[in-house]
């Protein structure tokens, strides 16, 4: 081959390479592709470790949502790609970076707030819309919040309503016992502020570790403070054991708890001690007809009674599917984001799902539940629409 | 004053279980020189087996006994199949192997049982008894009595029986022990099985309070290690005392100072005690010097 021909061929090859690589990275046209290419939706959840059940529940919820809302956008099927975050922020970042190489159109983010906060900047930089069910305050807003949408009320919103209720019940002095996870500390901060804003004296704030084997120190600290009520915060297993030990140590005063107290795990752990415990939540299995319908569908599909988090995952999955359909099979990420902004889904298990200007759940459902004869029952709806 | 009594009572009940964990941990160390990092996992394994048996309709006490037996068997299998080929090699090999066994037990349990936390029923009622203004529950009392009784029984066994005394001598000088007509390898096996049974008992006692989560094994191993070290590694009465001291210090710190660092107080105490008294609270002075 002559030098001139080689130069021309080499130049054409370089040009072809430049054209081929031009489409890689940096583009925000995540749903583009041929009419048969799947639209990828990433699910970042713990699939191994102590919180692995969240991953399983997220998968189940998305499968059920696709069954009800469809699994195709136009002619393009939805394909779920999964990353194991192990409920550890550093691992979540690693898993998300791996998923990003597959250019997902949207993400259903981890049930663990720490994971979501860790991957929020990554997803924002790629302009990938995200649906979250987390309680932590910083999930939405901030410089990386343009593409983050929270489908469930934040802990701050729930706590504001709960604090008002606690004050209205005549509680003047309260002890708060919480776990030391980032979720626990954040939730406690908003609750304590809300209680103080409503004139309730938070005399004792006691913390416990996730792996603690005994809570008597924390409980006796609260008992020593001679309070009118106790609020307990944590994951379902810990809440159940904490409440059981509170009663075991002879404390008969009212107990308030976070939403996890409504889970079956908490009920099993706490046993009879859970009777009359009041927990603030954004969902109960039979609070509205749509919730009953969802509960029955879940039981039929998976042979278990759904808990709050399954309903949350289902809401998020339905929101993402609805937005993908509204935006169309070839939408850009900004178009998908606009579709999420315009979401208005009635008859969801938690009521009508829509978002406000802050990307938070509009008209958030907040209600109080308790246990009567071992079953969770609705006692009062504090806010929210059906 | 009522609060102080309740604080101490609750702590002693919890500490008795920590001590029981420490006794098993110290026993294997005393006999074989091996620090068994899978000790807490045997406790969790026993509790999970008990849960599985209950799920199959087995009465509670029998299910718990089944779980305890399973923990002992698992520990015996580990000694026979995995540790025995390593005798004669540096001790570190055996210690590292127990780390691997811990990981295997945790992963296997999670694979079989899943990750949704389970609850084991208590042996006794958790309803509060009121004695004046003092509150205590039958469950706490049962845990305290069973843990202490078992610990005392093991301490007496090791100190007063021929096999027990041979176990004590084994880690120091296995040749001397074999000259006395006792097989060191049989003693190692017996020590691990006994320690596994103790771990199983601790597991079924503590599981109703903490739940069944496969990954809790490590935290129980840490508790066992802490109790054993504070009491004097190799000292069985020391391990019982160490467990109780840790629980009492943590509870007193939680109630009267702050809960934020209460868990650390117990471990800080270990550091301080060892700085002043390297053999721990009741450890053997000569044995400690020999090791140093």
Rg of chain B over CA atoms, rounded to whole Å, is: 19 Å
**Structural class by sheet pairing and helices of chain A:** alpha/beta
Quaternary status of these chains? heterodimer
* Strand element count of chain A: 15
- Which series of helices and strands of chain A comes N to C? HEHEEHEHEEHEHEHEHEHEHHHEEEE
Q: Please report the two chains with the greatest interface, counting residues with C-beta closer than 8 angstroms to the partner's C-beta.
A: A-B, 39 and 45 residues
Q: How would a textbook summarize the main sheet of chain A? A: 7 strands, mixed
Taken as a percent bin, the fraction of beta residues of chain A is 15-25%
How many individual helices of chain B?
12
Head-to-tail CA distance between termini of chain A: 76 Å
Terminal Cα span of chain B = 44 Å
Q: Helix- and strand-based class of chain B?
A: mainly alpha
Are there runs of chain B of 5+ residues with pLDDT below 50, and where? none
Helix content of chain B: over 70%
- Biggest sheet strand order of chain B reads 1-2
Mean pLDDT of chain B: 89
Order of H and E elements of chain B:
HHHHEEHHHHHHHH
